[in-house]
Design goal:
single chain; alpha+beta; two-stranded antiparallel ribbon
Length: about 120
Amino acid sequence: MKQSSISVELRHLLEEKKFDIDIDSFSEFMSKYSIGDWVYPSALHRKLRITITEVYKVLEYIADVGYIEQYLLVHCPYCQKFTGAVYQTYMDIPDYLSCVNCDSEIEHPQRHAIIVYKVIK
């Protein structure tokens, strides 16, 4: 898998934006990601002790400048696992979804979607 340039190239941009984060810790954490990897906001929140609000602000900015893309994953409320389906928009999520892990029928799967990001650059 090709290594992402996300930590090196974004360091300067993040410093200019003056986010309320430790740029060094953030860059080090992001340097572990390669193109095609999924970035979970909760992991950044948990590992770097950044508020979840600030995590989303930073990730949205990184998406806006073209290093990551936003996607939605549906979490099964019954077995607590991801259903395996990935969606680009809220409107793409069907009204009913079957969990591949436990075979449960999930009504209103939009209510169980979380935002994740995919490294693209």
